[in-house]
Design a protein that fits this description.
- The structure is a single chain.
- The chain is mostly helical and 180 residues long.
- It is 82% helix and 0% strand.
- It has 9 helices and no strands.
- α2 packs antiparallel against α3, α3 packs antiparallel against α4 and α5 packs across α6.
- The radius of gyration is 17 Å and the shape is globular.
- The two termini are 27 Å apart.
Amino acid sequence: AEDVVRVGQGAGDPHALSYGLNSLGVLRVTVGPLDEAERNLEQDRAVTLQISSHRMHASACGLLGKCYLRQGRLRSASQILHETMHLIDVNKMNDLFMADGVMGFAELSLIELDGLTGASRRTALQRAKSACKAALRLSRKAAVAWRPEALRLHGQLAWICGSKGRAITRWQNSIAAAAA
């Protein structure tokens, strides 16, 4: 990935540069360090805006949102993941490049439920259910590699809703999908 970044920079090719930065972001969000992932993805966001690539921009934003979640920066994660979902919805994008944004938004939606009560909780719970459903749907179709994550999030939703048995089944299915 670092080689692709160098080639993209050297050749003045923003598409290659974006691909390399995105690949570094995926790697570093997954195994760290997160501060380097953040730098790569912020740079990728800037490049994708210059080349008007909505698909790659949504990918970079989704990854950056997941990075912020892992850093515990919920306000930043919320801002970027809402932006990402808006971009996905407006452009009707539904492929594997959207997976990190959709999964990140589902995770954020579950986190935002914490501490809410009454009408706010019901609204947030509906948003979380919708987000988890979208994540699961995408993982069945275009982003099969994200299926374990989608099932894990769906299990977390079941747990929050009080369906302990369903949650355990979904988590077991998540483990089985990851092992397959």
